[in-house]
Amino acid sequence: MPPKQQKTKKNKKAVDLPENDKDKEEILENIKITEQNDELKSEIDSLDQFKFQKEEVNNPIKKTRKQKLQIEYEQSVNKVERASRKKLLDKNIDEDDKNQKQQTNNQLDNQNGNEEKSEQVKNQSEENNNQNEQKKKGKYNCRENYEEIYSLIKGYRDTHTAPVDTLGCDLQGDESLPTNDRNFQKLMAIILSVQTKDETTDLVMKKVVKEKITIDKAVEIPSSELKEIIKQVNFNGKKVEYIKNAAEVIKNTYNYVIPDQYEDLIKIKGIGPKVANLFLQCAYNKTVGIAVDTHVHRISNRLEWVSTKTPEQTRIELEKLLDKKYWEDVNNLLVGYGQSVCKPQNPQCQICPVKDKCPEGRRRLKGKKKI
C-alpha cells in the first residue's frame, strides 16, 4: 500500500509519510516549523522591500518589529538545525550502541564457544581415558585366565624360597613318635600357626617336641604349663583350650586315632575348615578341599578370582572356580607368595610376574616408575 501524502499550505508539494507513527509525527512537526519560518521570512522581506523614508527607516517601532521578526526566525531555524543534529547524533549513538552490543555478543559467543569447545575436549579426553581404562581392565580377566596366573606364580615360586617351604606345618613334629602322636603334633602345629608367622610357629614347635607333648600329655598337662610352652604364638590362651579339648576327644571318642574324614574333624572344637583341610593333606595325604588362610584370602581377592569378605567365603568360591588338580598345592603356593611378594602391607608389585595382569598390581603401579 503506497504511503500517505500531505501538502504544505504554501507550496502544496506532496510529502511522503512513513507508516511509522513516531517518524510521521517528526516529519509533520518539521513541516509546521518550516511553514512558520517561511511566513517570518516573507514578512521580513516585505519590510526590507518597502521603501521607507529616511525618518521612517529609523523609526524605532518599525526597527524593533523587524529585529523581533529576525530573532524569531533565527531561533526557529536554530531549532530545526538542533533537531536535525540531535536526530543525527541519536542515530549515530544508536548505531554505536548497536555495534558495541553486537561486538559484545560476538565476544560472548566466541568465549562461550571456546568454553564449550574446551569442555568438549575435556569430556572427550576423560571419555577416552575411561575407555582406555576399561579396555585395560577388560583386556585381561584374571578369573577367566586363572590357570595362566597360577602357572606364572608357580614359575616364580619354583625359583624363590619362602618361609613356608622350610618351616611349614607338614614339616613339624617328632618323626620318631608313633603315628597317632606324630599326627597329633602336626595337628598342634596347624592350630598354633593360625594368625601366627611360620618362624614363630617353628620356634614353639621345637619346644613342643622337646617337652614330648603327646595325646596323653596334652590331656594331663595343666593349662598354665601348656600356655607357658606356647606363649609366643598369637591367641595362646584360646589355643591351649583347643589343643586340650582336641586331645580329650581324640583319646576318648576316637581311641587315639585322629579322624581322617573332614566332617568328623570339623566337629571338634577349635578345628575349622582351614585346619581340617590342611591336616588331612599333611597327615593322610588327602585333599578334599582348599585350605584358606589370610594369605590365600588376600591374594585371591587382589587377583579378583573371588570377591569375598572372609577366608571361609573365599574357600567356598575358590572350590567352585579352581579345577580340583590345583586344590592340593594352591595353599602352599599362595602362602609362600604372600610371605615374599604379595604381602599385606607394601606388596612388591614391581617384581610380581603378574603385575600387568593383576588389577591390584596395575592400580598400585599406575603413575609409578617401574623397577
Automatic annotation (TrEMBL):
GO CC annotation terms, alphabetical: mitochondrion; nucleus
GO MF terms held by the record: 4 iron, 4 sulfur cluster binding; class I DNA-(apurinic or apyrimidinic site) endonuclease activity; DNA binding; metal ion binding; oxidized pyrimidine nucleobase lesion DNA N-glycosylase activity
Protein name: Endonuclease III homolog
Record InterPro entries: DNA_glycosylase, Endonuclease3_FeS-loop_motif, HhH-GPD_domain, HhH_base_excis_C, HhH_motif, NTH1
Requisite cofactors: [4Fe-4S] cluster
Basic residues bias (residue ranges): 1-12
The EC number(s) this enzyme carries: 3.2.2.-, 4.2.99.18
Cellular compartments annotated: Nucleus; Mitochondrion
Function description: Bifunctional DNA N-glycosylase with associated apurinic/apyrimidinic (AP) lyase function that catalyzes the first step in base excision repair (BER), the primary repair pathway for the repair of oxidative DNA damage. The DNA N-glycosylase activity releases the damaged DNA base from DNA by cleaving the N-glycosidic bond, leaving an AP site. The AP lyase activity cleaves the phosphodiester bond 3' to the AP site by a beta-elimination. Primarily recognizes and repairs oxidative base damage of pyrimidines.
GO biological process, one term: nucleotide-excision repair
Entry annotated with the keyword NAD: no
Disordered: annotated span: 1-23, 90-140
Keywords in alphabetical order: 4Fe-4S, DNA damage, DNA repair, DNA-binding, Glycosidase, Hydrolase, Iron, Iron-sulfur, Lyase, Metal-binding, Mitochondrion, Nucleus, Transit peptide
Biased composition regions of type Basic and acidic residues, renumbered to the chain: 13-23
